[in-house]
Design goal:
A hairpin with a 4-residue loop joins strand 7 and strand 8. The N and C termini lie far apart (about 50 Å). The protein has 8 helices and 10 strands. A 5-stranded mixed sheet has the order 8-7-6-9-10, with helices on both faces. The chain has a 3-stranded mixed sheet with strand order 2-4-3. The chain has a two-stranded parallel ribbon with strand order 1-5. It folds into 2 domains: about 100 residues, no CATH class; about 110 residues, Dinitrogenase iron-molybdenum cofactor biosynthesis domain (Nucleotidyltransferase, domain 5, 2-Layer Sandwich). It has about 240 residues and is α/β, with parallel strands linked by helices.
């Protein structure tokens, strides 16, 4: 069974939902259906000129998902224009930002954990190695590295943190800057010092602390299940 499709967030529902070639009766036209989330991807990229990163954040999807959505939208519009077909705008898995009002034909309601997964796309777990089977490194600033996971697709990457391990001072701040440069939105670790905590917070990165004694894969599952609250202050003074 295919996985359910996550909601893509749009600024508003379209006010115009049908376009057709002039002078040709509807009964003689073939139709192409453009989903509302595909229209939003097209608007953000080609009208507003947003980068893929910014547009993906706006729609609360990964960059990979945004790219696929945009490519599908451009292909449908090109098909309708080149073949003289009508363009109908409807359907898709979407929710409107304002009030998060769900639409008929849109995705069903999500649990709080799924909402968390949608809003926080890129998480980094301090790790003793590059795989899901490696143990979580309880140290943030001097962790061996970070396994980076993009949700909801769960694509994996790895950031080596060896340079910070060798520093006499400032390892936490250096590591925080490395997380920000990688576009990380949430950090999972055991202990985060006050200076590192401040640097992460200044970069808009959320922090889950006291994560230790388990594998990276187990930490990810716990996060997705909503077991880790976001910290308001450092747990290491």
């Amino acid at each position: 069974m295919p996985r359910p499709k996550h909601c893509r967030y749009v600024s508003s529902a379209p006010s115009v939902t049908y376009f057709k070639p002039r002078g040709i009766p509807l009964r003689e036209l073939e139709e192409v259906t453009l989903c509302v989330d595909e229209l939003e991807a097209l608007r953000l990229a080609d009208k507003e000129g947003l980068t893929a990163i910014d547009a993906a954040q706006h729609m609360r999807v990964s960059r990979h998902t945004f790219g696929r959505t945009l490519a599908a939208a451009r292909r449908k519009v090109a098909t309708a224009l080149s073949l003289g077909q009508a363009l109908r705008i409807e359907g898709g898995s979407y929710a409107v930002h304002e009030g998060a009002r769900r639409h008929a034909g849109a995705c069903s309601c999500h649990s709080p954990n799924e909402s968390k997964e949608l809003s926080m796309q890129k998480i980094a777990i301090s790790s003793e190695g590059p795989t899901l089977e490696d143990w979580v490194d309880p140290r943030f600033g001097r962790a061996g590295g970070f396994v980076v996971v993009e949700l909801p697709e769960r694509r994996l990457d790895y950031i080596d943190n060896g340079a910070s391990q060798m520093m006499a001072m400032g390892a936490g701040i250096e590591t925080a800057e490395r997380m920000a440069a990688a576009g990380v939105e949430v950090v999972l670790s055991g202990y985060v010092g006050p200076k590192a905590f401040e640097a992460l917070s200044a970069a808009g990165i959320k922090i889950c602390q006291d994560v230790e004694g388990l594998t990276v894969g187990e930490a990810i599952e716990n996060y997705v299940a909503g077991k880790y609250p976001f910290a308001s202050e450092s747990n290491k003074q």
